[in-house]
Amino acid sequence: MMKITDISKSFGKQTILQDISVEIPSNQITGLIGPSGTGKTTLIKCLMGMETYDTGSVSIHNATIPNRKVLNKIGYMAQSDSLYHDLTGLENMQFFAHMYGGKISKKSVQSTLNLVQLTQEQNKFVQHYSGGMKRRLSLAIALLNRPEYLILDEPTVGIDPVLKLNIWDQLHDLKKNSTLLITTHIMDEAMKCDQLLLMQNKGIAASGAPQEILETFQVSDIDQVFLELEGKEHENASLNETNL
Ligand SMILES: Nc1ncnc2c1ncn2[C@@H]1O[C@H](COP(=O)(O)OP(=O)(O)OP(=O)(O)O)[C@@H](O)[C@H]1O
């Protein structure tokens, strides 16, 4: 389990996260969704110890983060790809496999490339890859050591619909042995998660199983939940102004 307790984070005078407490349960896919700029990536980075936070604490696998041992159990796919453009796809995979201490077999490299449908393109230089191919290679690298914790920041951007479905099937398969946290802007993907955390106004405005959230807000899609939340925020702001 991953646990965030009372995390707050500001950049200069701008508060991005305020007193966030949340638990990300094991063997489930948790979706972190919210409008652009609400702090999803910042929260993920705080969770992994890549970003410092002002107050609060984080634990993964019952260890306080940052913790080197636990970091080895995490597969992370960032929004921007960190790939070596003058190496081939396969060479990138081999480089990261080596970084994991050479415990990853050639067979495993090939099966992971196959999973993201890059087998045919593995000997092409990454500088000649399309955006979607780079995303798939980044995903393959995050999956390479079959991590117990998989944190994916918008993993399916630029990936075509058929492969996207395929990747979601694989993610559901992976959760048997892993805990997944995924950010997405795509609402039909949000519905494929087991649990959702809806970020708005520096915090988690709603959480629960997707269907549960729809029922609570009595709406038919998640976009409408955000509209409702925004409406409530405006109401509260006007009330505060009236009370001043
Ligand atoms: N290192 C930084 N220094 C200053 N401000 C930052 C830094 N990193 C993020 N921010 C600001 O924090 C806010 C939240 O950014 P973040 O990337 O966490 O949002 P997000 O919800 O992941 O957005 P998106 O959905 O567009 O990826 C933004 O206003 C961003 O400009």
Characterization of this structure:
GO terms for molecular function: ATP binding; ATP hydrolysis activity. Keywords: ATP-binding, Nucleotide-binding. This is ABC transporter ATP-binding protein. The protein has about 240 residues and is α/β, with parallel strands linked by helices. It has a domain at about 85-145. The protein has helices spanning about 40-50, 70, 90-100, 105-115, 130-145, 160-175, 185-190, 210-215, 220-244, and strands at about 1-10, 15-25, 30-35, 55-60, 65, 75, 150-155, 180-185, 195-200, 205-210. It has a six-stranded mixed beta sheet, with helices on both faces. Strands 2-1-4-5 form a four-stranded antiparallel beta sheet, with helices on one face. A hairpin with a 2-residue loop joins strand 4 (about 55-60) and strand 5 (about 65). The protein is globular and about 65 Å long. It starts with a strand and ends with a helix. The mean pLDDT is about 90. Bound molecules: adenosine-5'-triphosphate. The site of adenosine-5'-triphosphate (ATP) has 11 residues, from helix 1.
